[in-house]
Design goal:
With 412 residues, the protein is of the alpha/beta class. The chain has helices spanning 3-12, 66-79, 95-103, 126-138, 154-162, 165-174, 189-198, 213-216, 219-228, 249-258, 264-272, 288-298, 306-320, 341-353, 359-369, 384-388, 395-411, and strands at residues 18-19, 26-27, 38-41, 44-47, 49-52, 83-85, 112-117, 144-152, 178-185, 204-208, 233-236, 278-284. Strand 9, helix 7 (189-198) and strand 10 form a beta-alpha-beta unit. Helix 2 packs across helix 3 (95-103), helix 7 (189-198) runs parallel beside helix 9 and helix 10 packs antiparallel against helix 13. Bound molecules: iron/sulfur cluster (SF4) (2 copies).
């Protein structure tokens, strides 16, 4: 039995958890037919689809649409999703509150609530306790099931050590306010190894893994380090923002010709389902249809077959011919002069993938719908955003490129 058949069987097997080679973390047997797939973590079953609260539905004025969010949480819970992932920084600081509000009517033991310590904004040791207590209050809970040190890169890792974050979180574990402790990582495999070596009680790790980043951002190396350390992996950015749900026309055609019923996003999730050791995959679902499609994918989740892998790789090769910007729309790059970096990159990428004859006009119209004060030409090249971007994008240079292209299209 080759590795892929083994994994496939571990997900599809009718009963019994399967011991993964060299690792005590187990991928569970599937849920009963017609329900969402789960992984087994310690003594709990965790839904393989995690409800990511970094991108919640919003109203026309940009605030969180609480009513729609509650409906989506209800649909998620009814479908068997039991992992809800928020963070202090998400949605301009409003995500934790919205999720606390949406989840408060459910039995607290029926779901896993996850949030993160925003080490990037710590200025003194006392901030750690203050923020943690604020998070409990925002989420209307007395404990977090999974808790992460957020967005570790070189700078944030230094802050973690400087402000004694780990000893404080250990104390919270002893007091029952945290069940499981991990971290999310946004840097090199070398730093990932250093963080794992520094503290031997990490219980899980959150990594950015998807088919594009597997090679491009050394995702494979990071995955292998986590596996060697026996750390269950929470996948973030499985769709690389929404890029893997919105492939260009040529790539979409390749996938549709092979399977007209499968959404583009489902291919990305099913590619990930072929990896061992995945605890859950986070998906930020801004519309009910995203949630419905994901529920369909994760119900009786199947890894891609070898033939499907080839089709997927062919489609991605066609997609990568477009020169898109690798922005995941996380919005960590808050700009002091108000340039709307994520929206600009998103519009530019849509333009790159668009194959309609009027795509230039469409791009111009959408771009000009952005407030003038937030457009690319307002960038003063201070470079602050570059230090915050987990994708290490050269944002000022990319903004200049978008501005140049926009002006060229206008002049035609
Ligand atoms: S480099 Fe430009 S976009 Fe980035 S923070 Fe400075 S002004 Fe804003
Ligand atoms: S430019 Fe970087 S930090 Fe900003 S939204 Fe995109 S990926 Fe996130």
């Amino acid at each position: 039995m080759n590795r892929r058949e083994f994994i496939k069987n571990s997900i599809l097997a009718a009963s019994g958890a399967v011991l993964l080679s060299g690792c005590t973390f187990k991928t569970s047997s599937p849920s009963p037919a017609g329900t969402i797939a789960t992984s087994k973590f310690k003594n709990i079953a965790v839904s393989m689809l995690g409800f990511g609260a970094m991108r919640l539905p919003t109203t026309a004025n940009g605030t969180i649409d609480d009513s729609l969010n509650k409906k989506m949480v209800e649909t998620a819970i009814n479908a068997g999703i039991n992992y809800f992932d928020t963070a202090y920084m998400y949605m301009g600081g409003k995500s934790e509150e919205a999720m606390g509000d949406a989840l408060k009517k459910y039995d607290r033991n029926s779901f896993n609530l996850t949030t993160k310590m925003p080490v990037m904004i710590l200025e003194k040791e006392e901030d750690v306790e203050r923020i943690f207590n604020e998070q409990l209050e925002r989420c209307q809970t007395d404990h977090f099931d999974f808790y992460l040190v957020h967005c570790l890169n070189k700078h944030n890792w230094e802050n973690t050590k400087k402000y004694n974050v780990i000893p404080f979180l250990e104390k919270m574990k002893k007091e029952g306010k945290i069940k499981y402790l991990g971290f999310s990582h946004h840097d090199t495999p070398e730093l990932l190894q250093e963080i794992i070596d520094y503290y031997d009680k990490w219980e899980f790790v959150q990594l950015q893994i998807n088919r594009i980043d597997w090679k491009a951002c050394r995702g494979k190396e990071q995955y292998e380090i986590a596996r060697k350390a026996n750390l269950p992996i929470v996948i973030m950015e499985p769709l690389r923002g929404s890029a893997l749900a919105n492939l260009n026309a040529e790539a979409t055609k390749i996938l549709r010709d092979y399977n007209p019923d499968a959404s583009t996003a489902s291919w990305a999730f099913r590619w990930l389902a072929g990896l061992d050791g995945i605890l859950t995959m986070l998906s930020g679902m801004t519309k009910p249809e995203h949630l419905e499609d994901n529920i369909k994918t994760f119900t009786n989740l199947k890894p891609l077959s070898e033939e499907e892998q080839k089709v997927y790789d062919k489609a991605l090769a066609a997609h990568m011919k477009s020169q898109a910007i690798g922005c995941t729309a996380c919005r960590y790059c808050e700009c002091p002069v108000g340039v709307d970096i994520a929206s600009i990159f998103s519009l530019y990428n849509q333009y790159q993938y668009d194959d309609r004859s009027n795509k230039a006009m469409s791009f111009i119209n959408h771009y000009e719908a952005l407030k003038e004060s937030t457009r690319a030409d307002k960038c003063i090249k201070c470079g602050l955003c570059k230090t915050k971007c987990p994708q290490q994008l050269d944002i000022p240079t990319l903004l200049a490129k978008v501005d140049k292209e926009y002006k060229a299209l206008k002049s035609v």
